[in-house]
Amino acid sequence: MSRGHGENGDFLALDLGGTNFRVLLINLNGQEVTMESKIYIIPQHIMLGSGDQLFDHIADCIFKFMCDHHLHEKQLPLGFTFSFPCRQCFTSIKTSIRQFMRQSGSPSKDEITKSKLYPI
User: Fold this and answer.
1) In a designed cystine with 15, which of 22, 31, 66, 97 is the match (CB 3.0 to 4.6 A)?
2) How far apart are CA 70 and CA 74, in angstroms?
3) pLDDT tens-digit profile of 51-79?
4) CATH: 3.30.300.20, 3.40.50.150, 3.20.20.450, 3.30.420.40. Which one for 9-114?
5) How does DSSP classify residue 88?
6) DSSP per-residue string spanning 89-114
7) DSSP for 45-87?
8) What is the pTM of this model?
């Protein structure tokens, strides 16, 4: 994020790691940045379960965070990152994400490509 170029307001950031899911509320106000975050553990049965179970858990965590921060009535832009160890080259990152999504029973590449994506 390049501060000072008109980015102001509240934003959500989501970080999905191997065992934890983190939700952050970031407020940009000119040169001032504030952040609040909460880390949610991903239970073993969800890590080993279906993609539906994983993304239902993620949705529940986001809902709890938004309620705790009185954001449930707001629509906020958000960024979502998958933090998995991989070599730092584009091919490896694509492979790691696809492998994770296959293991979790998530949608295929074609299904994702056809879905409506919104830029941040």
Assistant:
1) 22
2) 9
3) 888 889 999 999 999 999 999 888 899 88
4) 3.30.420.40
5) S
6) SHHHHHHHHHHHHHHTTPPPHHHHHH
7) HHHTS-HHHHHHHHHHHHHHHHHHTT-TT----EEEEE-----
8) 0.65
Position 110 scores a pLDDT of: 53
Cα distances from 57 to residues 45, 53, 87, 106, 114, in angstroms, run 11, 6, 28, 14, 24
User: Is residue 40 a contact partner of residue 63, using CB atoms and an 8 Å limit?
Assistant: no
C-alpha 1 chain-centroid distance: 16
What letter represents residue 65's amino acid? F
- Match 């949705």 to its residue by tokens: 59
Quickly tell me which residue has 């919104």 as its tokens: 118
Amino acid (1-letter code) at residue 7: E
Identify any residues that bridge with 33 across adjacent strands, giving them in sequence order: 28
Q: What pLDDT is attached to residue 72?
A: 82
CA gap 10, 3 in Å, rounded? 13
- 36 token code pair: 């609040």
